[in-house]
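User: Um, what's this?
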Amino acid sequence: MRTFSGRAGLAALAASAVIGAVALAAAQPAFAAQEPLASSLDLDASEVCPGDSVTFHATGFVVGQQTTVRLKGKDLELGRFNADAQGEVHETVDIPLEAHPGRHTFRVEAESPERDLSRKLVVKKVNECDAPDSVQSDEIVVDPGEAEPASAPQLAATGEGDTLGLFGGAAGLALLGGGAVMAARRFGIS
C-alpha cells in the first residue's frame, strides 16, 4: 500500500526540481549584468613635466563607481572621479610640482568591484622640459588577476565560463523533476 507521504514527497521533489531549473536559467543573465565591461586606460601623453596636465580615459567601471587616480612612485593622489553612465571616466589631472623625475605608474583604482588600471608615465627633469618629446611608449600594466591588457580588444565579461555549469545544473534538475513525475505516474501516485 502506498502512503500519502510517498506521493507528497515525489510531488515536492518534482516541483522543487522544476522551480530550481527555472531559477538557475534566470540567474545567468542577472549574473552577466553585474560584470563590468572590458577595461582600458589611455593617456594623452607618456612623458610629462612637473606641473603639466594629463588627460586620461578609463573604461570598465560600474556606473557611478568612484575611482581614485594616483601617481605611484611617490604615491601622490591626483583626484577622485565617478564613472559616467557608460562606466567610463574621462578627466584631466595635474602632475604635482613635487613629482620626482623618472618612471611612475599612473593608476586609476576602484573598489566593489575592484578594478586597477595603470600605465607607465615618465616625469621629466625640469631641465629636460624644453627639449622635444621623445618617442612615446604605449606600455600598459594590468595587475595580476585582472583581464587581458587593456590594449587588447575585449568583449564584455558575461560569465560565459559559468554558463555551462548553470545550464548543466538546470538540465539536471529538470531531468530529476521529470524522473520524479514519471515515477509518480508509474506507481500510480497522483
The chain has two helices and nine strands.
